[in-house]
């Protein structure tokens, strides 16, 4: 079921497309991420009707060259994962998700690369041991020993996710580039909702995804929030904004609180307040957080996949010492009344002197 379309993602940063230079080590070599193709923002998978979900992707360029001496034998490959919950760091930090999948990978890499020191890798930086996510909040679509080559031929096959044994829930799909030390992540926009049957879809709970269509927002001007939702009847949504200041999660402020929401493309409009840019040196960046809640109290949280550049709009007229009535138009309307009141006071004064 397609609820809205996701714009084709750009072909990554220019640094990823720079020519490679031969070296005894691959440390400075650009990594090739998964670039997800255009697809539905919301995908609902009924396991009673199908057992496989397909995703398309491309690679900016093939990476099939000869491995360097410090690379493991399956280096320069892609792997795919699904997460039922994501934290702010997945969107608001460069690392996004833990750079290592398991301790076995770390040990293998340490054998050929002296820069990999297993005891220096913190548990939080290993997906299998991190405290950021519980064990049941993520799963492998591709096994560690079945990572795929970074080639056009492989990308043409796409990714087929067998959901036969996958628990019902809301998932976000990620691609992982395995090339230590620098392993990178690339998230697919939108969500996949796996249900046992359409009749039991409401039991899975609500789902929401935010998209970015225009990365610039002007304070005080209406801005339509891009995204999609799949929710039971009677669900509500809260939208919050926060100024991006380094990797730390922003202090969120409410823009829309517990507004009714229905399944489909989002029909929400926000207005960022002028104080978003107050006291902010240079360019101001902001993110959005959406929390959808169904009638039973189940929630799903999503973050904007990128930052919005905030532009200061015109501020509304303000009172000055209680003398300003409004804008220029208000002053023009008020002037004749003030003159008339002055004439009347003068006449009363003259009459009292007689």
Q: Output mean pLDDT.
A: 85
Characterize the overall form: globular
Number of helices: 5
Termini separation (Å)?
88 Å
How much of the sequence lies in strands comes to 25-35%
Instruction: Provide the helix percentage.
Output: 10-25%
Cα Rg: 27 Å
Kindly name the structural category: alpha+beta
Low-confidence stretches: 1-23, 320-354
- Please trace the helix and strand order, writing H or E for each element: EEEEEHHEEHEEEEHEEEEEEEEEEH
Query: What can be said about the biggest beta sheet?
Result: 7 strands, mixed
Strands, count: 21
Number of domains: 2
Q: Any overview of this molecule?
A:
Residues 1-23 and 320-354 have low confidence and may be disordered. Strand 19 and strand 20 form a beta hairpin. The protein is an alpha+beta fold and 354 residues long. Helix content is 14%, strand content 29%. Strands 2, 5, 6, 7, 9, 10 and 11 form a seven-stranded mixed beta sheet that branches. The longest helix is centred in the C-terminal third of the chain and has 26 residues, at 328-353. It folds into two domains: 14-202, no CATH class; 207-311, Immunoglobulins (Immunoglobulin-like). It contains five helices and 21 strands. It has helices at residues 89-92, 103-112, 152-157, 201-204, 328-353, and strands at residues 35-36, 42-46, 52-55, 57-58, 77-83, 138-140, 148-149, 159-162, 169-178, 184-187, 191-195, 207-211, 216-218, 223-230, 236-243, 253-260, 264-265, 268-270, 284-293, 299-303, 308-311. The N and C termini lie far apart (88 Å).
